[in-house]
Every structure is written in structure tokens, then in C-alpha cells.
Amino acid sequence: MARSGAGAGLLGRQHECQALDALLAGARAGRSGVLVLRGEAGIGKTELLKYFLGRATGCRTVRFSGVQSEMELSYAGLHQLCAPLLAGLDQLPEPQRDALGTAFGLRGGAAPDRFLVGLATLSLIADAGGNRPLVCLVDDAQWLDRASALTLAFVARRLLVEPVALVFAVRELSAGEALDGLPELPVTGLSENDSRELLDSVVTGPLDQRVRDRIVAESRGNPLALLELPRGATTTELAGGFGRPDTLSLPTQIEQDFLRRVQALPAETRRLLFTAAAEPIGDVTLLRGAAERLGIDVDTAASHPDAAELITLGTWVRFRHPLVRSAAYRAASPQDRREAHQALADATDARLDPDRRAWHLAAATPGPDETVAAELERSADRAQARGGIAAAAAFLQRAATLTQDPARRAQRAVDAAQATLHAGAFEPAAALLTTAEAGPLDELGRARIDVLNAGIAFAQNRGSEAPELLLTAARRFGPLDAALARDTYLDAVAAAIFAGRLAHGPGLPEVGEAARAAPPPQRPTRLPDLLLDAVAVRLTDGYPASVPMMGRVLEAFCDEELPVQDALRWLWLAGVLAADLWDDERGHIVADRHLTLIREAGALSTLPDVLEARAHAHLLAGELTAVASLVDEVATVCAAIGSNPTRVLPLGLAAWRGRESEARALIDAIMSEAVPRGQGAAVTVTHWYHAVLCNSLGQYTEALAAAREAAAHPYEFASPRWGLVELVEAAVRSGSPEPAAVALDELSVATRASGTDWALGVEARSRALVSEGDAAERLHREAIERLARTRARVELARAHLLYGEWLRRENRRVDARAQLGVAHDMFGEFGAEAFAERARSELQAAGAKVRSQVVATPAALTAQEAQIARLAGEGLTNSEIGVQLFISRHTVEWHLRKVFSKLGISSRKEIRTLSLEGEATPA
Length: 923
Known about the structure:
This protein has 923 residues and is mostly helical. It has 47 helices and nine strands. The protein has a five-stranded parallel β-sheet with strand order 2-3-4-1-5, sandwiched between helices. The chain has a two-stranded antiparallel ribbon with strand order 6-7.
């Protein structure tokens, strides 16, 4: 397909070669580039990679090809790519080094978070080139194992200003969906003229014009078809056109041609090709060992002249094309395949590569075999320890198939379903559970099925169904394992909190009743046991009765050392208790502790939820700039890990800022997503933020309606009580005293039971709104005094605002201006624009001259530049910033240079003096 002459390129591929040349030029200039070559089998993708490799003189290059039979071995492809780069492994930050080393089986340890593996790969690739550009080529990417495909897609999306070119070749309509969204170059057929030229270059004898036309038409410009289809035709067919027309699809025609050529080989040569096709690595030594066990003389078999056109044995075993490999494997009978796999298993060192040996043994086994099934089970354990959940699922599925005993087979099917669910394959997991349910399972097995069905319901946006499934499982666990039963009841509570008002079946009260019936805890009592008892009392006996228990549990979460796994699993629920108890101080401690643990553990899949919890503490403190940074980080993490759940944090930021159009669009979007997904807690929080927004804008009638919705389900945690606060203010301001009085009574029950300054402060502020004279003033002052002792500065600013509004209506204009001025300044400092405007209007009505507050940005920084600048100002190194934002340190350096230039500064210390979100100045 290549033209002769230096720099001539490839026949008919000028556009593609120009695109690749531009990509390489960018890498040489220090700009990262990613390209996916997508096209059918034989279209020339591999030739384009060879062209690119030939042009990459002076660059460091790594390349590998996906292999279909390796798709079940997690990180197999990634290991091939990174193997030449592993000298840089020790230079990575410790969490990344450990994650990648564990994934590759180079060291022991807990299964790494796959996103931490991705970040480690990004760092390794970004640093690998040194002073030279790095060129990474991945052929047959449709056959990458899932873990490798997701990791490389993650890396491709995070490269920016590193001298790296990353090119994938993938078949169209293939399993390469992990690469969707990356820059893509479709590789289509050659033009008719180029097709004729290529065809003529390989046909040496006479060629009938009608045959030429038919081959060109049927090939549709596919170069491999043009090169190979004539080989399968006789000279009579080529010269006279009397051959039978083939009705198969083009790739099938090509593979059929390869199949005929394999079948025409001598028996010993065919068996060599069968065996090579069954060995995915291309290890010549392993192939020779297997061939020896089969009685094949490799050199004699490979020397057949027709074999040389299909396979080469050099440093590695290489087939002419992946279709040759598949044709060779198909040419083997089932018995031939089993013999080949058995020989390969026997030739594989069980100490160095036990998993590949187990996989070959499984392929060599015609029926149930407990010994092989047990070996596959051990391979699954090793795969899970490396973070290879998809590989573990594949091993376990095969183990279940090879299991004779029905009870053992059902148990292995449950194990396989669990691994499959964790790998993100929900429908296959459900199918495995159906298989397991048909077997003779004990109560423990059936309880596990209930738990997994709940997990599938959650994953498929049916979270409102999960509480009932988890309660069923917890009841089954009860007589068998008290600790497991209690943890499952606590999971049911968590699921009910998530589902809230939208639960199908048992809701929070019913789940609480069920949890009260949980088996008693074992000794010594674990903190999760105390947590379960506290929330069960909260949901059955009511809020006041549970406050002492919840307070003790929250204190323990703040003060006691917890096993890491317990802390990672339950700290979020401790944060829910803190919000429910109006305990701002302990809520701050829990949020900080949880975020630190999540970062240290590299548990990136749960990081967005923990960042949102931390952001709520900042919202309460009026630190909206910090909230904006966390909104950006949540978006960065979600984009990096491919997560897209309903997020309410952006709405909270927009509501407290008072940005009406933005907030209303977010409300509509959240409600349209959260209701179908059964996310009742998100619905309640959205109504509360809606009420905050409308109160800030003075739209009190709408605020009243939203607050009523927020407070409508009192069994939910935290938000309904906060909704009552908004309801009292909205009702008073809209002239509806009766709803205000009812809401205040409900609020007082909770705030007085809580007893914190935050709770009692907002109660005093709310009660002042329905009071008159000295009583009202005393309550306003109490609210300010109490809230001044808390972290709840937004509530303090609102207390000053409401006191100032009351003083103005009492015609005490001087006193009013003092309170309103404090409120105005505080809201301006926060960036709470609508509340600041409300305070400004009241100040003007009180006779003060005040200018509107506008936001002055020190420079036009992009969102990511501002985020990086803030982190640098906090003292983080470039590597630490890169870890947090999923970019390389080179990208951080590049952004900081732009930040310094835009801000006119020369050091990181100067960043700390600037307001990167914008600061309030008089207009």
C-alpha cells in the first residue's frame, strides 16, 4: 500500500498522513495530541500506524496491539504499554506508585482504585519522554481489556501540554466505546482509481476487466481485500471471471480466504498456527514449549512457504493480520483447540503466570472440573487484589460453568455476579443472579442475592427500590451473622435516606422500625452498631428522643480512631447526623476527616460526594469562593471518572449567590433527573435551595411554596428543618401568619432538642419575625449573639439583615443602618449578591447612601486557571495540584505561567493576596 520513494506516504492516504504529521509536529512542539483511527478490518489502520512510527525519528516510541483472547485479563494491555516505561515508576507519588504496581502484580496490597491507576499512568506517560517526545501507538484497541481501555481513555482526556502523541486504531462498530468522544479520524476506503492501482500491483497474471471491476466494487476500497481476495482466486477465475460470486460480508470474505489458506497447509503447520492463535502474548519461547509437547517441529512447520505469508516467528510471534489469527483458531476442531490450550497451560510457568495458565486450563477442559474451577477462583482472588474486577468476574463466571456440584455452582455464580456488578456490567450481573437463584442456595446465599439486586437497582437509577431489597437481605442475615445483618440494616437506612420521599415500598419510618428489630450487637460494640441504634431511634421514637444518642455517635466519629474501611464506609452518614443535629463544628471536623481519608485512600469514585459534603460547610460559612473551587473540582473528578449523577452543589452555589436565571435552570434540570432516578433527598434539598433563592430575591410567595415542599417530609434528615426556617420568613413576609406559627412550633421542637447555638440562633431569629416590641428585639439580639459563636456566618448575616429590617419598620433609622450595614458588608464579602442587594435597598430606605456591589475580577482567568491558582496559593506543589485535578505536573506548570502573566505577579506567595473569584468594590 506504500508508495516508493522517501516521503511518498501511503497510496490514497494523503489526508490521513497529513493529520498524523500534524499530530507529531504538535508533540515535537510540546503539545499533547490524541487521535483515534476508526475503520473496518483491513482498511489500513495498521499501515497508518507504521507510517506514523516511521516519521517519529528522534522520539521515544511504545506500541502494542490488543488481543481478543486477552480481553478478560485486567490491565494486560496497559501493562504492555507501560512495561518499557516502568523505570519511572519509583518517581511517582507513593499512592500512584502503589496503585500501578499493585495493578501490574509487581507488589501486594489492597485493590487500587482504578482512577488512581489512571492518574499514575498519566504521570508515568507525561514524564516518560524526558527531553524527547513520546509516541504511544495502540493497535486493535477494540480488543483491549476493559480496565486498560478505560485507563487509557482517562489518560487521553487529561493530556494537554506534554510532548506526547497517543494514537489508537479501532474497528468501527466495535467495543471501543471507551474511546468515544476523543478526536477521531475515520479511515474509509480508497478511491476507485487508487483501488485499481493497488490491485494491479499484486496481480501478476492476466486479469479480466469484469473481474477487476467486480473485485474493486466488492472491496469498497478496502486495501486488505484488494491485496488478499485475488490470492483466493484461481487464474481461470481471474482471467475469465467464471468464479462463484461470494455473498459474505467483506471482513468475512477476507477471513474466509485466510481460513481456506490455513486449511490448505500441511497438518503440522496447521497445528502450529492453531497453537499460536491460542497464545495471545506472542511469546516465541512459550509457543515452542507448547509445540514440543504436541510433537510439532516448529522450524519445519514454520518453514512452509505458504505459512510465511500468514505468520512470522522472530523475537515475537506475529500474524499477518488479526483476521489470520481468528481464521487459524476457527480452522481448529474443538479437540485441536483443547489440546493446544492444554499444551500452552503445561508450558506456562505456574509461579510466574498462574492466571494465564488457569485460563488455558479452563479452555482445555471439556466439562465440569473442580480442580480447574478452584484454580480459576484463586485467579479471581489475585485479579481482585490487583483491582482487576472485570478479570475476576470472567474467572468466576468460567469457574461457575466448570462446577459440577449445583450448590457450589450457585455460590460461584453469586460471586461472579458480585464482581460483574462492581465491574459496571449490570445486565450480565443480573443474568448471573438469575442463574444462581435456580440453584440450591442457603439463606446466606439468598441474602447476598438480595444485596446484589439492591446494588443493581441503585446502579440502574432505581435507587427507590433498594431499601426493600436490603431489608430482606438483612432479615436473612440475622440468624447467620449479626454484624453483617446490622451493617445491612444500616445500608438499608442509607438507601432510604437517598430515596427519601420517593421510596417505593418501605420508607424511612418503616426502615427504622425494621432496624429496631436487628439482632443485638456483639461485644465489643462497634461504632457502626451505635450508629444504627441512633438512627433507628431517630426514625421511630422521633427527633428529640434520638438527639443524645446521635450526639454521642457523632462525637465518637470525631474523636475515635476508626478502621479505615469503617471510616470510608460510614463517615458520610456521620456528616448527615451533624447536619441533622445543627452541629456545625463537628460537621466541619467530619467533613475534613472524610475528605482527607478519601484522598489518602485514592477512593476517587466516592470523592465527588465527599467534596459536596465539604462544600456545604463552606456554604454555611459564606465561603462561596471555596465552594466555587469545589464545584470545579467535583466537575473535574466526575469528568475524569465518567460519572454523571444528579449534583445539587452547583444549585446551592447559584442560590446563595442569588443568580436567579442560573439557579432556576439548575432547579429544572435537577428535578427532571432526580425524580425518575428516585433521588428523593436531592428533591428535598432542591426545594430548600429554591426557597433560599426566592427569599433572597424577595419573592416570598414562591419562597413559601418551595419551603413547604422542603419541609413536607419530616422524617428526612436535616433539610426539612432548614426548610421550616425559610418557611417562617417567607410566610411572615407574604402576610401569612398562620403557616409561620405552625412552622415555628415544628422548628422549635427540633432546635430545642438540639440545643446548639446554630439551632437556637435560627429559632430565635425565626421567632423574632412573629414577635413584637421588646420581645422581638430581645430575640433578634439573641439570634445574633448565638450565631456569632458558630461557623454559620450566612445565618449570622441574615440575622443582622432581619434585625435591621425590623428596626427600620420601627422607625429607628440610625440603629437600622448599623445592622443593615453589617449585613451588606458580610453579604458582599461572601458574594451573596441577592441578599446584598436586599440589604442595600433597605439601607437606602433607611436614608443611607450606598452603592451597588459589583464583582471586579483581577484578571480574566479561566475556571481551571483560577482553580490551580487557588491551590497554589494554599501551598500545594505542582505535583499535588496535578493529583487533585487529574492533570500532569507539566500542565500545572503551563497554567501557572499563564496565571502569573495575567495577574502580573512573579511568585506563588503573591497569589494568596488576591481574590481569584472576584471581590466586591463600589460601582
